[in-house]
Amino acid sequence: MRTLYSFKIKVALLFSALFSSLSLLAACENAGMIKESKRQEATSLQTSNVEIDGALGKLSAVVYRPELQDGEKTPLVILMHGFTSNKQERLITAIASGLQEKGTAYIRFDFNGHGDSEGDFQKMTVANEIEDAKKVYEYARSLDFVSDIALLGHSQGGVVASMVAGELGIENISGLVLMAPAAVLKDDALNGEMFGIRFDPVNIPEYVSVFNRRVGREYIKVAQSLPIYETAARYAGPVCIIHGTSDEIVPYSYGVRYKDGYKSAELHLIENENHAFTRKLDEAQNIAVDFLESLNKK
């Protein structure tokens, strides 16, 4: 009888301990969920969707503002995507995430005719994308929490960023990151080829179909006469160029030529990396974010 009673006591104690452990685990998980929820809520409050007047209509943009004290200012980076892409491009969002972790503000946006922005893709040109980028710069400059502004562009966005930096100068642009900058677009336009599609570069057709998109005649005409390197070289500030050695769209020789034209540039060639930086994304992200963060220490 006494043995049975002792056994019941041990069972009761065992269940009590188990219940306490489960309760503690649930409390910890709940605390973690609350913490994560608060983090996501804070991020949501710090990130806003805005519309900015562009060259051919409203531009859809996302603005990230870190937590700041009253009157405190922070550097901001404008992120520019490539041809037929958008602000949700994996590379762009990865860079944005890295900047966010460092507490650096950014704007990522869709060029005209891309993503959620207004405009007809067939009317898009590098020239009006440059105007888009300048409009975004003006918007960023109007934000009361922004101190310095840097630019980052991928592919065609890199060409745009390089030319905007050249036009605005070091007094307005604190630094520049070019990721697989597609200066090849001028040579392609002159040679009558675009992503494997041939056309007459003298008698340019009304449009060329690429990736189920219509690239307009004006795009090609503008590309043929773009002073890409000449304009880019006018920028005298710090430049970081990142290019994959296995880029199948823009040979890395274009990145090398960009570096040769700058007064203060570093070139990072990533072995066996492609145009979209999908193989070694973390490496490309770290190089870009670390360079942009280094600007804040100068």
Oligomer: single chain
Structural class: alpha/beta
Total count of helical runs of at least 4 residues = 9
Strand residue percentage: 15-25%
Mean pLDDT: 89
Tell me, what's the shape?
globular
Query: How are the strands of the biggest sheet laid out side by side?
Result: 1-2-4-3-5-6-11-12
Give the C-alpha Rg. 25 Å
Helical content stands at 40-55%
End-to-end separation = 82 Å
Note down, in words, how this protein is organized.
The chain is α/β, with parallel strands linked by helices and 298 residues long. 45% of the residues lie in helices and 21% in strands. It contains nine helices and twelve strands. It has helices at 2-46, 90-102, 126-142, 156-168, 184-191, 217-224, 228-232, 253-261, 281-295; strands at residues 47-53, 58-64, 74-80, 105-109, 146-154, 176-179, 193-194, 197-198, 207-210, 213-216, 239-244, 265-270. The strands form three sheets. An eight-stranded mixed beta sheet has the order 1-2-4-3-5-6-11-12, with helices on both faces. Strands 7-8 form a two-stranded antiparallel sheet. Strand 1 and strand 2 form a beta hairpin. Helix 5 (184-191) packs across helix 6 (217-224). The model is unreliable at 1-5 and 7-44 (pLDDT under 50).
